[in-house]
Amino acid sequence: MSEPTGALGGDGSPPDVPSAADADSAATATDSEGTYVFGIVAADHPCQLDELTGVGAEPEPVRRVVAEPVAAVVGAAPPRLRAKRRDLAAHHRVLTALAEQGTVLPMRFGVVAPDDDALREQLREAADRYLSALREIAGAAEYNVKLLTDEDAVVRRVADTDPAVLRERGAGDTGYEGRVRLGQAVATAVEAALRADADRLVTTLTPLARRTAPAPPTAGAAVNASFLVTDEQLEPFQGAVHELAHELRTDGEVRCTGPLPPYSFVPDEGGEP
């Protein structure tokens, strides 16, 4: 499968909701640039795709490509696909709808197969790998947690509590070297305080999740991490997040986003074919 330049999952449905079989029979756009892949599911995933549309300026209905025992949820890939906000939102919307119905192995934005036949062949060849990856994330969702720091507040705190800072302040040296020593002491104390806050957050939440994954660094965040949380773990996990938010409120804001499709927990061997 390829990615575009700039790119960063039955029967028995209610009568008014198209079944997966209905979606499978939908026509593929003749002017598309391939088959856009949202995610991979087990073939028995409900895949209620009613009203879901894909990416592009004129998005078409989402459908399935089946290769028992797995299937891919796909749409038409528009020409010159780019990571526009509209299309990123559509990608996430489809995966969120699938995750609400069952386990889905999410593809990152921009995964495109040459056509349905090529995709179907790839699914057959890697079926066991995909089923194993689906089992790893079954019954869980991703929650992203950030600790957004208020560095000015941390500076004020360490200025009144850190021994090294208090020692330099007490020395009363207002000359250049004294100011440098004080500045270095404050910087060291702030770094240590933020590291302690980050370690506390991660150490508290890690035992309450199935898996943990670091997320890309974010400006102004001492922590940006994702947690794979099962249904059984959700209540204690959320309780711990709320407690941390209260305890760390003087240093910043604890922000939790989820549930999300498990983007950060697709096993290496379970990525796109």
TrEMBL record:
Keywords: Gas vesicle. InterPro entries: GvpL/GvpF. Residues 19-28 have a biased composition (Low complexity). It is found in: Gas vesicle. Residues 1-28 are annotated as: Disordered. GO terms for biological process: gas vesicle organization. GO terms for cellular component: gas vesicle. PANTHER family: PROTEIN GVPL 2. Belongs to the gas vesicle GvpF/GvpL family. This is Gas vesicle protein. The lineage of its organism: Bacteria, Bacillati, Actinomycetota, Actinomycetes, Micromonosporales.
